[in-house]
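Weekly puzzle thread! Below is a chain. First person to post its structure in token form gets bragging rights.
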Amino acid sequence: MNLMLVYFLLFILFILLILLSLYILISFLFIYYDIKNKVFFAPSEKRIIEEFFKIYPFEKEKIFFDLGSGDGRVVFLAEERGMKAYGVENNLILYLFSKILKKIKKSKANFIRSDLRKINLKECDYIYLYLLPKFLEEIEEEIFEKISPKTKIISYKFKFPNKKVKKVYLDKFFIYEKNF
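Winning reply:
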């Protein structure tokens, strides 16, 4: 009986070592992607995002892009509100996680693994961003050149340094238009 207990404990220890190794690998990959892309994953606060989606005048059937979509929570919310929702994520782990959630939710949202600077934004009606100020400054001119005059850019928590805000919602959502 003691031998069975030893084998069982060794098996449990083996499983724990595998789980710890996976945790370390995933953590390393997160850090690697964050440093490489100068963008750190911080999920949008679900309650505040839901509140914003209730008060902002989104139009159904419009095209919604979340650039730096992370786990996809904003993309799924846009889809629930009747928009054609796309998430763009460069971090492989977050991209795969979003794809798994898409299957679980039986969602029609689309996820693209790409650098957000390489995406065609001409057809977008709404672009959602939750990016740090330094990165917003880095992409500011490029993103405003790529969008059409009808596109609304929604930046959560941080402002573009050289663009004029058209409207502010809940003191955290800054709305921009190309020619404002």
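Puzzle host: Confirmed. Bonus trivia for everyone else. The first helix runs from residue 2 to 37.
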